[in-house]
Write a structure and sequence with these properties.
Residues 4-254 form the NAD-dependent epimerase/dehydratase domain. InterPro entries: Epimerase_deHydtase, NAD(P)-bd_dom_sf. The protein has a single domain, classed as NAD(P)-binding Rossmann-like Domain (Rossmann fold), CATH 3.40.50. Helix content is 42%, strand content 16%. It is built from 13 helices and 13 strands. It has helices at 12-23, 41-47, 64-68, 84-89, 91-111, 127-130, 132-136, 159-179, 201-210, 230-242, 261-272, 297-303, 311-324, and strands at 3-7, 27-32, 52-56, 74-77, 119-123, 182-188, 191-192, 216-219, 224-225, 228-229, 250-253, 259-260, 279-282. The strands form four sheets. Strands 3-2-1-4-5-6-11 form a seven-stranded parallel sheet, with helices on both faces. The protein has a two-stranded parallel sheet with strand order 7-10. Strands 8-13 form a two-stranded parallel ribbon. The longest helix has 21 residues, at 91-111. The protein is globular and about 60 Å long. The N and C termini lie far apart (42 Å). The protein binds nicotinamide-adenine-dinucleotide. Nicotinamide-adenine-dinucleotide binds at residues 8, 10-14, 31-37, 58-60, 78-82, 97, 101, 123, 125, 188, 190-191, 197.
């Protein structure tokens, strides 16, 4: 049975990945400090599975890595501060936590006694290249992996997130070369689904529909995103980890289907059976890109993976979960 570590494993992607790997019989260690995740029923059910262990601690602290142990076959490095509001509110923490946990995991991985041929995977982000558009006025869409990583404006706190992902990619590439270990990098593109927190566009729209807010605010209505359902997403992440052809490579994960935010809101109105009398179209936050669409031909070519879930089907499951788990007011 493979032994797997997931850093940030109680968060959105980590939880769904852990659930998938636990169902396949892997021995799992999840580490999380619950900065952005909860000890909820879903997590308790996961922790009830034999061979799943939780270590609740702060991965910026190097002493924690002694408790993590050794003998791993696979390490998924997911920890980080995700959620656009945090990029604007606490950019210094986004940077500190992103960079220090990445350096810590690499130092631990290269020196700890993990299994021969053990592999580590880094979750970067589309935000590492997104500001190329702002800086140079152009970005190929769909966007392939080999575009330059760019920070358009170091004074815009939004790019704290893209900046630490850029640094993280460099660390992974050059540590793996220097210390001769296996690694891959993935860049998720707008994953969605149950248990994704409350700061993303889909849970925000669902929450406002549930509250029947009218006029109904829609932020960045003419922006587009390609939404990838979480079960497809974690299948892709595991495939990149385990495929023979992905070592040393960087992979975009997403769908080829581009959706206008205004159309997304319409779909949610229709799935939830309520529509406001009036919509109130608002600007998206400063630095937000107009179009985001990954070129996912590389992951398909190297592993055969492609997203399967239709947006309507994924939205239906997501809405059902959020209606059963409404946001608790602050
Ligand atoms: N969800 C997406 O669409 C998306 C897109 C691009 C990149 N990513 C990247 O994928 C990774 C996972 O994203 P997610 O959506 O699951 O985010 P998430 O916020 O749900 O999960 C991150 C987890 O890390 C934990 N954490 C934060 N600081 C910690 C610390 N110091 N020590 C231990 N745990 C800590 C949080 O509590 C949280 O559970 C992140 O690195 C994120 O930047 C996600």
């Amino acid at each position: 049975m493979k032994k797997v570590l997931i850093t940030g494993g109680a968060g959105f992607i980590g939880y769904h990945l852990a659930k998938r790997l636990a169902a396949e019989g892997y021995e799992l260690v999840i580490v999380d400090n619950f900065f952005h995740s909860a000890h909820d029923d879903d997590l308790q059910a996961l922790l009830a599975v034999p061979n799943v262990r939780l270590l609740e601690d702060d991965l910026t602290q190097s002493r924690v890595w002694e408790k993590v142990g050794s003998g791993f076959d696979e390490v998924y490095h997911l920890v980080g501060i995700n959620g656009t509001k945090f990029f604007y509110e606490i950019p210094h923490e986004v940077l500190r936590i992103g960079v220090s946990t990445t350096l810590n995991v690499l130092e631990w991985f290269r020196s700890e006694n993990n299994k021969p041929g053990a592999k580590i995977l880094y979750t970067s982000s589309n935000e590492a290249y997104a500001s190329a558009l702002e800086a140079f006025g152009k970005l190929p869409i769909p966007t392939p992996e080999n575009v330059p990583l760019v920070i358009a404006d170091t004074y815009n706190p939004r790019w704290s997130y893209g900046g630490q992902k850029l640094i993280g990619e460099l660390f992974f590439i050059h540590y793996a070369k220097a210390y001769n270990f296996r690694m891959s990098i993935v860049r998720p593109h707008n994953f969605y689904g149950p248990r994704a927190g409350y700061e993303h566009v889909i849970p925000e729209i669902v929450g406002r529909v549930a509250a029947k807010i009218d006029p109904f605010p829609i932020f960045g209505a003419d922006d587009t995103r390609s939404f990838c359902y979480i079960t497809d997403a974690v299948e892709a992440i595991q495939t990149v980890m385990e495929s023979a052809h992905t070592d040393g490579g960087t992979y975009h994960i997403g769908t080829t289907h581009e959706t206008l935010i205004a159309d997304l809101a319409e779909k949610i109105f229709s799935l939830m059976g309520w529509r406001p009398q009036k919509t109130d179209i608002k600007n998206s936050p400063e630095g937000s890109v107009k179009r985001r669409l990954a070129d996912v031909s590389k992951i398909k070519k190297d592993t055969g993976w492609e997203a399967k879930t239709l947006l309507d089907d994924g939205l239906e499951k997501t809405i059902e979960w959020y209606l059963a788990h409404p946001k608790v007011p602050d």
